[in-house]
Amino acid sequence: MNYRSLGRTGIEVSVHCLGTMMFGAVGNKDHDDCVRIVHAALDAGINFVDTADMYSAGESEEIVGKALAGGRRDEVVLATKVHFPMGEGRNRSGNSRRWIVRAVEDSLRRLGTDWIDLYQVHRPDHTTDIEETLGALGDLVRDGKIRAFGCSTFPAEEIAEAHHVAERRALPRMRTEQPPYSILARGIERDVLPVARRHGMGVLTWSPLASGFLSGRYRPGAPVDLTSGRAALTPARFDQAVPGNAAKLEAAGRLIELADSIGCTLPELAVAFPTVHPAVTSVIIGPRTMDQLRSLLGGAALTLDDATLDRIDEIVPPGTNLYRPDGVWNPPALTELAQRRRPVTERAAG
User: Fold this and answer.
1) What DSSP assignment string belongs to 65-127?
2) Is residue 202 within 8 Å of 150, Cβ to Cβ?
3) What is the DSSP letter of 200?
4) What would the DSSP string read from start to end of 204-255?
5) What is the block-wise mean pLDDT of the chain (350 residues), using blocks of 10 residues?
6) CATH, residue 107
7) How many domains are contained in the chain?
8) Given this model, what pLDDT does residue 122 score?
């Protein structure tokens, strides 16, 4: 396992990070099995574990806490997130100081730890000034509850705005970004990755298997079972009747042939690909089972040469998305009518 510096934090992390979204009710419900997966990843050299409060409504954090109990906490760089709703009622989500201060205490309790190494804002919040969010996170650093903070799946312009506000208001700044990135979703090569690199941010990417499309299970012309695996969670991404999915299948088929030609599996090829970009620090792998962990760890030992990367560029050109990688979430600017339409009484005014 190789290690890299997480931006300019001085923290050394493994090039592959264990993601735990599939631990708990959404994926693997067996806590003991999930604990074994965490221990196997640590034994393989991974020292970076990523979770979030909303993964299975806090259950994932509880499982990670169990896995790190008994002396393994100190060897792990532990990351979690805040933003999405946790339970019923108002003011239990978002990026306000009120919610962040409450949510971090809940995460610390579930994780069974006194500090979080990397606390990430899971998505932007258009109802909260970024200055408010940065101020709250900076206070948590001073209080010793978190060591560093960053953002996840922020557009390039909002990353740049956060840095501008931090500089203008003399506030601590975002140290990391966590975007989706895979061979099938390379759009962040145009903007997010250059911006993150310009600001010295660490980048930990998620969904290297393109939500399962690069798992090797899906091939052109073969029927897709929409009732099992990742296809059951987001069937629209796999239904061949949906426009655009045929292009993903065609690319996956060509990538399987490429992987075969260099003596690796498609998941190994997919997991190795994001590590090549100079802006990327660590790639999150999110296994549900021990077998999936073993298959993904093969990518940690794989080095892609220029000839292989050139062939990948021919299949999916740089900066190209064959699908919208964060398709399960839309920004309020698109989903809320009030963000897109003036009131009727104002429209005639021009």
Assistant:
1) HHHHTTTTGGG-EEEEEE-S--SSSTTSSSS-HHHHHHHHHHHHHHHT-S-EEEEEE-S--TT
2) yes
3) T
4) EEB-TTTTTTTSS---TTS---TTSHHHHHSGGGT-TTSTTHHHHHHHHHHH
5) 96 98 97 98 98 98 97 96 94 97 98 98 96 98 98 97 98 98 97 98 97 85 70 70 81 96 96 97 97 91 95 98 84 84 75
6) 3.20.20.100
7) 1
8) 98
**Does some domain include residue 69?**
yes
- Residue that is written with structure tokens 């978190």 in the block: 146
CB 66 within 8 A of CB 38: no
Q: By C-alpha distance, which of 34, 3, 5 is closest to 19?
A: 34
Determine the pLDDT at residue 350.
54
**pLDDT value, residue 298:** 87
Euclidean distance between the first and the last CA atom of the chain, given in angstroms as a whole number = 60
pLDDT at 245: 81
Can you give the residue range of the structural domain that contains 325? Answer: 3-216+268-339
Question: Among 3, 55, 218, 323, which one carries the catalytic annotation?
Answer: 55
332 within some domain: yes
Length of the chain: 350
Instruction: For residue 41, tell me if it sits in a domain.
Output: yes
Residues 17 and 204 sit within 8 Å (Cβ to Cβ): yes
Phi and psi dihedrals of 41, rounded to 5? -65, -45
287, 208 in Cβ contact below 8 A?
A: no
Token pair for 240: 């061949």
Is 55 annotated in the active site?
yes
SS3 30: coil
242 lies in a domain? no
The whole-number pLDDT of residue 224 equals 73
